[in-house]
Amino acid sequence: MSPCWKRRRRHALLAGLLAAMCGVANASQTDYLPPWNPPPTGGVSFAMPPFDAIADLHGDIVDPQLTVFFAGNQFMVVHDLIEVFKQRYPAYQRVFVETLPPGILAKQIETGSLVMGNLRIALKPDIFTAGKGSIAASQKQHGWFADTVDYARNPLAILVAKGNPKHVEGLKDLGRDDVRVSMPNPQWEGIAKQIEASYRKAGGDALDHTVMDEKVKAGTTYLTRIHHRESPLRVLQGESDAAPVWSTEAYFQQQILHRPVETVAIPADQNVTATYTAARMKDAPHTQAAKDFLAFMASPEAQAIYRKYGFQPPQP
Questions:
Q1: Ubl conjugation as a keyword (predicted)?
Q2: Confidence band, pLDDT 50/70/90 cuts, at residue 1
Q3: Within 10 Å of residue 273's Cβ, how many Cβ atoms?
Q4: Which residues, 6+ apart, have CB-to-CB distance to 152 below 8 Å?
Q5: What pTM does this model have?
Q6: Core-most of 32, 150, 192, 205, by most CB within 10 Å?
Q7: CA 171 to CA 289: how far, in whole Å?
């Protein structure tokens, strides 16, 4: 074997090894990408994250018998919830669900459509869910809703990488220069207001200003650009060190998906607990389906699914 051939062989082996290592790294990062729900069965599967992978549109978009606009933090519940609803109400088999930030869903209702890439969706919702305060504000401003039901509660938590390498012990640590924070965008994420209230409880206006102004300008606080789904993903991919999230999002990543993350609890005196409300639209295209779904949300079956994913029951 000539020396030249040996060198070529070594180079080929090294190149192959490098390609394999890159492939493993890319695969591991791709494994974290949404969607994080089981896909529908049947049909041609055409998705390779991050390409053509639609995470927050669920079910049947053509001639749905029920359309639900869900607050985006409940994406993990949708698969189980809708399957059980279909079993209990077999008349409804074509159900379409969106799990986007409530501020975006409200704009979609106001404008009449949502544009996602090259797709335009002009479906009217039968049910709209959001935080209790947001529902009350929308009702006062627009008078959209016929009736409502509270169905779950959720406190805040801090999501960090496994091992908590930055030793984040509480909200005050998010003000440190060396801690990169992923923060929901206050422009359309209702959770942002809740987190800022917790900042003020933990460290006054100074902590809120540090995290939301100074660190944003310095580039050490990242404001989500489209959805608070970004925050867990940034922690998983090492782009952020800590992310204030709903406790159920941390629970889902750690306990359901078994991802390499940990949860830092926020004390009750610094925490904020949201109540979620489902509202039936006055102009719902499917009035009876909307009534049935609203009743279902308070049923033992639906409540058991919410408990499975870490949500707390509504206050009586």
A1: no
A2: low
A3: 14
A4: 275, 276, 306, 311, 312, 313, 314
A5: 0.86
A6: 192
A7: 43
Helix (H) or strand (E) holding 130, with range, is strand 127-131
**Higher pLDDT among residues 210 and 15, named by residue:** 210
For the chain, domain boundaries: 57-154+275-308, 156-265
User: Class for domain 156-265, per CATH?
Assistant: alpha beta
Q: What is the CATH number of domain 57-154+275-308?
A: 3.40.190.10
Closest to 145 measured CA to CA, from 298, 278, 275, 276? 278
Block residue for tokens 């707390």: 312
What's the pLDDT tens digit per position in 69-114?
999 899 999 999 999 999 999 999 999 999 998 989 999 999 999 9
Cα–Cα distance between 308 and 287 in angstroms, integer? 29
For CA atoms 304, 261, 223, 33, give the dihedral sign.
negative
